[in-house]
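Cross-posted from the bioinformatics board.
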Amino acid sequence: MSTNKPDPADPLRRKVINWFLGGSALALFASIVYPIARFVSPPRVPEATTNQVDAGSVNDPALVSNGYKIVRFGSEPVIVIKLSDTDVRAFSATCTHLACIVEFRKKKDDIYCNCHGGEYNLKGKNIAGPPPKPLTPFKVDLVAKSGASAKSIIVSRA
Amino acid sequence: MRERLRKIYRWFDERIALGPVREFAMHKTVPVHRYSVFYYLGGMTLFFFVVQVCTGILLMLYYRPSPNGAFESVEFLMTTVPFGWLLRSIHSWSANLMIFFAFVHMASVFFMKGYRKPRELTWITGALALFLAFAFGFSGYLLPWNQLSFFATRVGTDIAGVVPGVGHWVLRFLRGGDRITGGTLSRFYGWHVAILPALMTFFLGAHLLLVQTLGMSVPPSVEEEAAKRRPMRFFPNFAMRDLFGWTVALGVLASLAAWFPWELGVKANQFAPAPAGIRPEWYFMFMFQTLRLVPGGEIAGVEYEVIPILGFGLAALLLVLVPFLDRGVVRSGRSPLFTAVGAVGVAYIVALTAWGYHSWTPIYVVLGVAALIVLLAWATRRRDSGGEA
């Protein structure tokens, strides 16, 4: 009998085979799970950067009757508040608590979030309720356009 | 006719051996004691789940999961499709009643210590099925794509986002991106009609199988009474009582749907402020109210709102693990600490819900349900002289 013949009952040999088998099973499992895990994580889609938007006229009916309006700043909502013809302010409209969209309360002269009752003053500072941070301010320029009777509100990043 | 049915039965029996199943059903019994009425609550929850599956499948025939089609398709369903309003209203009402009965069922099992050995897995699968029901509610809420649902999803997914570490990944995973868009709607629809039903089939299947194989748990406090009294046969006595309850439930459901049809609201606008008086479904109200009460601020770089959110997560985990935490009930059949903690938990949920609504109604509902259960216990009681076993 040849001494080179492998002994099938050799514990080391069995261990090596089990390692290979286990390793292969693990690799197979990983090769299935990894693409699925990547697939369910949405890819980051680059967006055009917005630095400035025209928020319309200071005499916009919505702005006049409610004292505010929400405008699109790229994909972000921005609240534009008109306190007088010369005092127009803009802040990010996303509540810093849990991302609801805030509104301006003319009667109480504050910015309010209906979701959890967060309150901000007219400088965007959080003054009551759960919001942890102030609203991000935006820069407002009132620009006279040729041919237009009222000035336009130009909102840009502060 | 009877002979023909017997023939059909035999035909199947020869091929798939129905004998043991029949044998099991014939001999299955339900213990009888003063708390037996609570055994109907699981079946009631199951009934509403079946209604959800049937009405949900029908609603899929008209629903279009896209930001430009979702609201319009539900509007069409409510205004033009024959009985569309009825099916949608039944789906919404049944969802709420299912969660309500799941709550009451879980509370009754908790207080009657039904989770003790060997029913740990029954408890765990049941608790996970309840969380899945919440996920069904949360994902289904967005589908009509109205203002209320849009903000509920915005807040709900943002809550997941504040969890330290994995939060941002979870938020993007749930929303299908950084914001709530048509992609979120597709995802939620996929969860609502495919992924969650698949998971629910597994957990509910396991739960029901365990209930059948292990039988009903008898609370330690009435073991003596149950041992003295003759158990009730499942077929036909218990099943007929179940069937009676489901018939009444169907009537209640249809009445609610007819008298209080579910509103559709205004189409979602991503650039409009959250509507005044916005609030989540009643079963999330206690968490919503808690979040309203937490002031703004940071401690060691962690915002205060993270604390209750992690707290609720921890409470959910502890709830699932109750069978392994409550060792006293195994030793002595009593665990007053767990009963007390459970009572405090229920009181917290009811009180914060009432506070959130600024109304006594939630407390009246709890008292009303307690009264109804007492009434049903009396109506479905079984005298031992009845000779039904």
